[in-house]
């Protein structure tokens, strides 16, 4: 056996292995920072002494290796087959391989035939994801691993992509959650993404070989995989060669298929292949020349705030603190609105410490001359900072930004704020907010979007942004989310695009995301005549220029664009008119200590993960709660809440006893929440003991995740897999879950379909849940028409008789009649309770929110206690099915063929006729049909003079962003009321 070389060029690293006579004599592993070919050439030159003058065979592999292999005319082996070569040679008894790379993840099943599952364009759940999360916590990846090993609990964090995860992690940081627990949660998120996103319903079992850099370096990741998969030490194999497996497989392949080369020939081929012509679509430069840029800067410099020296100023002052998603901002403002002191920097995952350091510098400089009369906090960390430092007041960040923008231009009619993870858009009419648009849980198109790319290329954000100003050929990257865009950036780099071109292209992409994904504008006229842009992202001149170019008009960017939230908070602190501020004093600050611990609240069924923050001297702040009970405040259960009422009705049906025909199980998921009274009455009348699966919890999802074939289906559908597992655990062997193309006909729309997922999910369960194939289990999933009334009896009889021959058609007819009556009573009771709730609200001067969604949104694991959160503001919560019959059926711009959606449109119309009502729409991630309903509901509400608020929900339980949206709605409504009262 001679010498053979394998090179694995992945999305973030290059690995090279040299094998002589069957032994590995050289190996090297380095990041290429997107400089693929130069780094590969560098590693080959480093191996020169080992290679010597002997001829050898070579093969390349990896996601970034194909282009180089083609350009250098070298053999290439697809990485799955390279892994297969290693497994056959070194671990032939392997059943499954899990390999995680920089931006690639794959599972290869060997038992039962070779089958590979690999991530697409998304880099969620890979090494790049872990790197991003380490940066967010301001630690190295190695430190993240060490932190995770000291964890006490795990939070639910999305790993679909980095920006989703940031949206989950940032509120935890701002609430004071332990870094150790967050670190462990990050690694667990990677595991969950692998199981649900890649395995897609196929069980990972037997001997599992874990390969790739992340699985070699991170012991906490190894621990979480073993725990989640329940593997023994013999079946979980983390080999020393894990980092180099693909490179070794390439070398083994080269030995059989490669052509002989010398070192000089190899180096020459790779060196000659490094230059290639760009073919990506290019855009016009942002600026033609330096004079063009200078004129641009001069124009925007006019939108400024006067500054005054804190060290020479004497008098009253007002402090504004904006504890944002990724940065912390402070502004101390004089009595005449001049800025005396300002601060803007990343919060490094510890906003309390940042504020403490700033106040420790600021307060001594004020002593004796400057009196802080008022203070206010805003942003994600508002409550934490307010309690920690006795800040006088808090205000929701949307209102803080509105106040600041109005200070610069009283005629402002559109405000766009792009922060680290948030995009906020306000339309202003009659000097008050007319509509609010916020980005959803994804933060693509925000500041973190740019910083992620800057860091991956070895630049800080400011340097990276400046590079794009005079790029000659900006790359057109479209408007895509961060990890999806990684592939576009990598492709552009392979084709020769320089960093300057990519920087400009990313700035343009941020703008397109804001305009077309959040604002959804069809033209610039929709935005208004007086546009103010703000937020730290607009300090980037390339982003600002891109925005003006895309709109075709000039806008105002205040020089303090990144401080607008803090400045607005300072203006609000001034409006408070306090004689004396309660802000923490310097002496107390010197003794200030912040500690936090995690616990689970047991005061209600939500079982919230609480973070208890202690600040010394008995001061505490509890976060993570979805109601006020752990705080000792008013119990929101005393206020009518139709979500709780309906859930209690479901709970009442969970009691069961013995019956002559035995047990039959009903999975409590999707449309079963509404059809439950029908099927419960039907089977009870026939003499069955009806057994329901338990209400959903996070554990329900975990039990069923191994059989979920799609990561993109909505979370309510994913939960049904766990409900099937729950019924089987209860010993139920007969499970009934029918396919229902149609729902009951309520005569509110053009038709009365169930959505395809709801209608036919039983078919998917039968095909993917292995336990349902057990001969001892009878899964009954007939296609029936629940809308047919008594006509459905013959069809049901013919289906059920196959399982229960003692049934008679007469019995089934009577059972259907009883079931229809039970369903009608159930729905009438809900409508009656809704009327009582509305009456209560009006009698007691309460606001009313119509929390609109699907019947299954009453599931506490799906809504995460949003109804209780709204109730905690003293608001009466009713559901769409309580009010949808109070108006004539609405005519919308689309085919109105779904029962649940027809209710939603009617409820929206009714809300526009009621001055004390607002509508909040719940939307599950993965629901394609709601792409239509959201636009229709928004149009109905806005035409009726109401604000539209949408809450997108999935398996993530942190309600920080939800609370901001609810408060924004309430503040905007109140601002309107004040504005109308003043006219």
Summed up:
The protein is an alpha/beta fold and 983 residues long. The protein contains 36 helices and 29 strands.
Can you walk me through this structure?
By secondary structure, the chain is of the alpha/beta class. The protein is built from 36 helices and 29 strands. The strands form 8 sheets. It has a 5-stranded mixed β-sheet with strand order 7-6-5-8-9. A 5-stranded mixed β-sheet has the order 12-11-10-13-14. Strands 3-2-1-4 form a 4-stranded mixed β-sheet. Strand 13 (370-378), helix 15 (382-388) and strand 14 (393-394) form a beta-alpha-beta unit. Helix 5 (127-136) packs antiparallel against helix 8 and helix 18 packs across helix 20. The radius of gyration is 31 Å and the shape is globular.
Main attributes of the structure:
5-stranded mixed beta sheet, alpha/beta, 983 residues
Average pLDDT, all residues: 85
Strand order of the largest sheet: 7-6-5-8-9
Proportion of helical residues: 40-55%
Q: Which descriptor suits the 3D outline?
A: globular
Please give the count of helices: 36
Largest sheet: 5 strands, mixed
Radius of gyration: 31 Å
């Amino acid at each position: 056996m001679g010498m053979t070389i394998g090179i694995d060029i992945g999305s973030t690293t290059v690995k090279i292995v040299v094998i002589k006579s069957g032994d590995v004599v050289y190996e090297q592993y380095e990041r290429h920072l997107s400089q693929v070919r130069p780094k590969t050439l560098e590693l080959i030159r480093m191996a020169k002494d080992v290679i010597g003058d002997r001829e050898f065979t070579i093969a390349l592999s990896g996601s970034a290796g194909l282009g180089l292999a083609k350009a250098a005319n070298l053999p290439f082996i697809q990485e799955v087959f390279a892994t297969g070569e290693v497994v056959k040679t070194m671990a032939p008894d392997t059943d499954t391989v899990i390999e995680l790379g920089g931006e690639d993840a794959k599972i290869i099943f060997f038992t039962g035939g070779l089958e590979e599952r690999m991530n697409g364009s998304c880099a969620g759940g890979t090494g790049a994801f872990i790197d991003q999360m380490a940066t967010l916590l301001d630690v190295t990846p190695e430190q993240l691993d060490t932190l995770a090993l000291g964890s006490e609990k795990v939070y639910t964090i999305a790993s679909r992509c980095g920006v989703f995860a940031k949206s989950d992690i940032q509120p935890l940081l701002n609430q004071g959650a332990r870094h150790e627990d967050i670190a462990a949660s990050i690694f667990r998120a990677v595991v969950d993404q692998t199981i649900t996103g890649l395995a897609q319903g196929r069980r990972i079992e037997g001997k599992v070989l874990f390969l790739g850099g992340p699985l070699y370096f991170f012991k906490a990741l190894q621990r979480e995989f073993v725990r989640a998969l329940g593997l023994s030490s013999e079946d979980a194999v983390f080999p020393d060669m894990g980092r180099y497996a693909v490179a070794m497989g390439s070398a083994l392949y080269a030995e059989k298929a490669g052509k002989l080369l010398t070192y000089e020939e190899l180096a020459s081929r790779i060196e000659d292949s490094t230059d290639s012509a760009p073919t990506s679509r290019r855009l016009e430069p942002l600026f033609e020349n330096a004079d063009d840029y200078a004129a641009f800067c001069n124009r925007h410099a006019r939108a400024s705030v006067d500054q005054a020296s804190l060290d020479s100023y004497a008098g009253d002052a007002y402090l504004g603190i904006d504890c944002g998603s990724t940065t912390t901002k402070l502004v101390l403002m004089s009595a005449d609105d001049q800025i005396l002191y300002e601060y803007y920097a990343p919060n490094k995952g510890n906003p309390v410490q940042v504020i403490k350091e700033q106040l420790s510098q600021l307060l001594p400089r004020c002593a004796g001359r400057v009196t802080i009369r008022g203070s206010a906090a805003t942003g994600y960390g508002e409550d934490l900072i307010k309690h920690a430092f006795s800040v006088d007041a808090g205000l929701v960040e949307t209102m803080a930004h509105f106040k600041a923008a109005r200070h610069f231009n009283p005629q402002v009619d559109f405000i766009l704020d792009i922060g680290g993870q948030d995009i906020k858009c306000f339309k202003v009419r009659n000097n008050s907010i007319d509509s609010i648009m916020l980005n959803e849980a994804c933060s693509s198109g925000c500041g973190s979007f740019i910083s992620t790319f800057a860091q991956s290329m070895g630049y800080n954000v400011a340097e990276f942004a400046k590079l794009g100003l005079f790029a000659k050929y900006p790359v057109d990257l479209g408007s895509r989310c961060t990890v999806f865009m990684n592939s576009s950036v990598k492709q552009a780099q392979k084709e020769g695009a320089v960093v300057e071109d990519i920087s400009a292209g990313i700035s343009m992409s941020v703008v397109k995301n804001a305009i077309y994904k959040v604002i959804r504008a069809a033209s610039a006229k929709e935005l208004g005549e007086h546009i103010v842009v703000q937020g730290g992202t607009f300090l980037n001149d390339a982003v600002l220029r891109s925005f003006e170019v895309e709109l075709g008009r000039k806008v105002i960017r205040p020089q303090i664009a990144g401080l607008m939230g803090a400045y607005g908070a300072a203006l609000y602190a001034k409006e408070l008119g306090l004689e004396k501020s309660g802000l923490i004093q310097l002496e107390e600050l010197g003794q200030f200590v912040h500690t936090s611990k995690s616990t689970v609240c047991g005061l209600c069924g939500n079982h919230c993960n609480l973070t208890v923050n202690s600040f010394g001297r008995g001061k505490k702040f509890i976060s993570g709660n979805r109601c006020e009970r752990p705080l000792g405040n008013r119990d929101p259960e005393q206020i009518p809440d139709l979500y709780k009422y309906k859930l209690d009705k479901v709970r009442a049906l969970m009691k069961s006893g013995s019956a002559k025909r035995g047990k039959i199980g009903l999975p409590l998921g999707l449309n079963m929440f509404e059809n439950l009274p029908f099927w419960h009455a039907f089977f009870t009348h026939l003499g069955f003991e009806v057994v329901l699966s338990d209400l959903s919890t996070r554990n329900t999802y975990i039990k069923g995740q191994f059989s979920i074939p799609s990561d993109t289906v909505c979370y309510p559908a994913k939960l049904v897999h766990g409900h099937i597992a729950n019924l089987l655990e209860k010993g139920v062997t007969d499970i009934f879950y029918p396919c229902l193309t149609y729902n009951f006909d309520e005569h509110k729309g053009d038709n009365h379909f169930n959505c395809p997922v709801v209608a036919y999910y039983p078919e998917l369960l039968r095909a993917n849940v292995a336990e349902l194939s057990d001969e001892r289990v009878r899964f009954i999933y007939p296609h029936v028409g629940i809308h047919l009334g008594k006509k459905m009896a013959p069809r049901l009889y013919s289906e059920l008789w196959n399982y229960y021959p003692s049934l008679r058609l007469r019995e089934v007819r009577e059972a259907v009649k009883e079931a229809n009556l039970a369903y009608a009573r159930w729905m009438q009771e809900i409508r009656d309770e809704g009327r009582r709730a509305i009456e209560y609200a009006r009698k007691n001067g309460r606001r009313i929110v119509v929390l609109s969604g699907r019947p299954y949104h009453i599931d506490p694991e799906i809504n995460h206690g949003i109804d209780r959160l709204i109730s905690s503001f003293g608001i009466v919560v009713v559901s769409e099915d309580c009010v949808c019959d109070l108006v004539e059926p609405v005519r919308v711009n689309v085919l109105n063929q779904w029962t649940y959606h027809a209710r939603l449109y009617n409820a929206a119309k009714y809300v526009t006729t009621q001055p004390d009502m607002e509508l909040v729409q719940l939307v599950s991630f993965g629901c394609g049909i709601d792409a239509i309903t959201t636009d229709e509901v928004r149009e109905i509400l806005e035409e009726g003079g109401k604000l539209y608020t949408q809450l997108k929900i999935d398996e993530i339980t942190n309600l920080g962003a939800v609370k901001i949206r609810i408060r924004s709605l309430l503040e905007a409504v109140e601002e309107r009321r004040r504005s109308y009262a003043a006219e």
